[in-house]
Amino acid sequence: xxxxxxxxxxxxxxxxxxxxxxxxxxxxxxxxxxxxxxxxxxxxxxxxxxxxxxxxxxxxxxxxxxxxxxxxxxxxxxxxxxxxxxxxxxxxxxxxxxxxxxxxxxxxxxxxxxxxxxxxxxxxxxxxxxxxxxxxxxxxxxxxxxxxxxxxxxxxxxxxxxxxxxxxxxxxxxxxxxxxxxxxxxxxxxxxxxxxxxxxxxxxxxxxxxxxxxxxxxxxxxxxxxxxxxxxxxxxxxxxxxxxxxxxxxxxxxxxxxxxxxxxxxxxxxxxxxxxxxxxxxxxxxxxxxxxxxxxxxxxxxxxxxxxxxxxxxxxxxxxxxxxxxxxxxxxxxxxxxxxxxxxx
Length: 345
What we know:
Number of strands: 27
Strand order of the largest sheet: 1-6-2-3-10-11
Structural class: mainly beta
Helix content: 10-25%
Number of domains: 2
Oligomer: single chain
């Protein structure tokens, strides 16, 4: 199942592309050299890349070598260090097969998963992933692909299978990585939000939009409630899952209608509160980033953290990666940084 075709020795070694925004030509050269990559970029750029050992997803927001940057001209690459892995497996997963993602992952390794935003798979994974067989026993990290915020409603998020050159708006893209026996993968998250002391909100339907909700047991128009309470829309809804805080970021509040859109689904019957205000969003986020002794193999962050922390031109310590429409650390997260390290077992 797991096996990497040995790349031909390059005639002239390339500089590392890992953790960097690079041109299409530079990414293509790395692919042809046989490097194993996870790539984020505008769909028009991903479409130009040759086949090889890579998977990709659409997004134009990044924190890279020069700090935060919005780019439709370059792609972001993360590279699998060949010294830590014994093999990879690249494949699509759909609604019928996604529940087997952990079962089919290597016994010692990790999985990178990319899902197109607002697809049926996005909702299904968000709702059902915690119950998948062997979930939480094998590291699964990844992100939800997106588009430029100016293109919402006009462009569609996609994922790319670099092995075949095939794109999809509905399926998830996976790379399973088998590690050497002496290595082990670990997933970490950075979430600066906690539940506030405000009203308890319960939704009567699961989905990426909501019209109605119960506010302290009384049914209300949710958009009207947000406007009436002058809610700071940078603050997500937060659910407390036995001490683990799971965020749902607000994407849009219809100013004339009665619908609120989210970056992750709200779930029927779950008790939410808006997050407690953060006095200094930028400072709180930066101070929460851990100092790690081992290198970060994969990292992603939420596009809302990118916007609200004003990360354009700013660095996030040793964490680089795409700024996404959702983050995956086993299950779907929102307004959260996710990172993966590989260390000695």
